[in-house]
Amino acid sequence: MKILVIPGDGIGQEVTTWGRKVIEKIAVKFGHSVSFDEALMGHVAIEATGNPLPDETLEKAHKSDAILFGAIGHIKYDNDPTAKVRPEQGLLKIRKELGLYANLRPIKLFDELLGASSIKPEILKGADILFFRELTGDVYFGEKKRSEDRKTASDLMIYHQYEVERIAEKAFKAAQSRSKRLCSVDKANVLESSRLWRETVQELAKKYPDVTTEHMFIDNAAMQLIKDPKKFDVVLTANLFGDILTDEASQIAGSMGMLASASIGDKIGLYEPIHGSAHDIAGKGIANPLASILSVALMFEISFGLKKEADAVLDAVAATLKDGFRTKDIADSTTSAFNILGTEAMGMKVLERI
Length: 354
Ligand code: IPM
Ligand code: MG
Known about the structure:
Elements: E1 2-8, H1 12-30, E2 35-38, H2 43-49, H3 55-63, E3 66-71, H4 75-78, H5 87-97, E4 102-108, H6 121-124, E5 128-134, E6 144-146, E7 153-155, H7 161-177, E8 181-186, H8 192-205, E9 212-217, H9 218-227, E10 234-237, H10 239-249, E11 260-264, E12 269-273, H11 290-302, H12 307-322, H13 343-353
Parallel strand pairs: 1-2, 1-3, 3-12, 5-10, 8-9, 8-10
Antiparallel strand pairs: 4-5, 4-11, 6-7, 11-12
The chain binds 3-isopropylmalic acid and magnesium ion (MG).
Residues 72-73, 88, 91, 243, 274 line the site of 3-isopropylmalic acid.
C-alpha cells in the first residue's frame, strides 16, 4: 500500500498524525506492508511555493494508491474575498485532477455519543445514513464571472447527464447492499440543472427496481433530516447541496469531529474528515483525531477491500468511547474531567485498543 499523507492546514497536521499511526498499527497487526510519502496542499503550500496544489503534490498523488488528507483553509483568506490565490483551490483542483467525483459521507452515531449532539437522543438513536455528494461539478466548477464594475457576480450551476449518472450508479449500488432505499435531493421545482438531475435519476432507477427511490427538494430535506433522520438511508445529492446537508448531518453523529469521508472516482481514493482546519484550536493539542482515524477505516474498506482491518479500526474507536474517553467536542455534562483527553492521549487510547 502506497499512501500519500497530505496534512494540509490548521488541525490537519495534528489529526493526520493519528490517522497515519493507526494505519501503521493495523499494517503490523495484519501483516501488510505500507509505505508513506508526505506532500503539501493549502495555505502551507501557498506559503512554501505560492501554489495551493504544487505540481510535486499532484505527481505524488498520481503515484499513490490512496491519500490521507487532513484539512484546508486559513482565516487570513476567509475575511479577504479579494484574494486571488486561496487554499481551498488546492483541494478543489486535486478532486478534479484525480477524478474524485463521488464523496461518500457515512453518518452513524456511536450510541455512547447520544448525549453529545444538540438533537434529542430519541430522535437520533438508530440513525444511519450514507451520503453520496457529487464532487466535481455544480457551482463549484461552473464558470465564475465578475462584471467590469465588479458590482455583479455569477457562478454557473451546471451538470452534464454523465456526471449525474456515474454518481447515481454508485449510490444505487450502495442502496442495494443496505436497506434498498435511496433519496435523491435536488431543487427541481426551480433549477433546470436539478430537473436534469431528477430526470437522470428517474431513468436510472428503472435499472434498480429493488431500490425504492424517492425525490426530495433540498429545503424539505434539510428540515426532515433534523426532524426524523431515521427516515433516510442512502442520500444522493449535488455538490453544493451535499456540502451543506452533510455539515448539518454531522450533528446526527454528535460532532463534526466524528465524521469521515471518502472521495472516490475510478482509481485513487482520498480520505478526509469533513471538518475544516479549525484554526481557533490548531496547535493546542485538543483536536479530535477520530474523524481522521475513521477516514482510515474507510480507506481500508474502499481502496483496499480490507473489511476486517476497517472493522478493527471501528471497533477500537467504539471501545475507546465505551470506556468513557472523550475529546472536548464530544464530551457532555456526564463526562468526568479525567476522561476529557487531548489529541495525543485520545489517539493513544485507540492505538492501545487496536
Ligand atoms: C468540504 C469543504 C470544502 C468544500 C471546502 C474546504 C472547499 O467544506 O469538503 O465539505 O466545500 O467542498
Ligand atoms: Mg463542507
